[in-house]
Amino acid sequence: MHKKAVAVVPVLEDGFVLIRQFRYAANEILWEIPAGIMEDDETPAETAVRELIEETGFRPEKLEQLCRFYTTPGFSNEEVIIFYSQNLIPDKSLSPDPDENIEKKVFSHSEVRSSLKNGL
């Protein structure tokens, strides 16, 4: 049984906050939205807030669940719950896990649209 994962789309007025880190399974450094595995005592929303603070240094004032899905239901029961977050306020109360080397960057709305359109 795979634990559930949570991912967060962090939206600022001028763009989206994405993180970049090395992913061993892909053997690449990837830009992605903040995400993480739910702890046993957490709700999906609590995990979303914790991961967002740890990985971006922002706390959402508004958090809305967008969807949930199985990543590869042909061979795994891993489920991901995706949240949309707005009205982000700085919060440095948590830091990335010791094994995470994370870079963050704000991408403008047009940069994200272009990347999605071009498959980047």
Structure overview:
The protein is globular and about 40 Å long. Strands 1, 2, 3, 4, 5, 6 and 7 form a seven-stranded mixed sheet that branches. It has helices at about 45-55, 110-115, and strands spanning about 5-10, 15-25, 30, 35, 60-70, 80-90, 105. The protein has two helices and seven strands. With about 120 residues, the chain is an alpha+beta fold. The termini are far apart.
Question: Which structural traits does this protein have?
Answer:
7 strands; seven-stranded mixed beta sheet; single chain; alpha+beta; 120 residues
DSSP E strands, number: 7
Structural class per helix/strand content?
A: alpha+beta
- Work out the helix count: 2
Shape: globular
User: Unreliable runs, pLDDT <50, ≥5 residues?
Assistant: none
Q: What is the beta-strand fraction?
A: over 45%
Give, in order, the helices and strands.
EEEEHEEEH
Please tell me the overall pLDDT.
Answer: 93
Structure in a nutshell:
The protein is an alpha+beta fold and 120 residues long.
Question: What are the SSEs and their pairings?
Answer:
Layout: E1 5-12, E2 15-23, E3 28-32, E4 35-37, H1 44-56, E5 58-70, E6 79-90, E7 103-107, H2 109-117
Parallel strand pairs: 1-6
Antiparallel strand pairs: 1-2, 1-4, 2-3, 2-7, 5-6
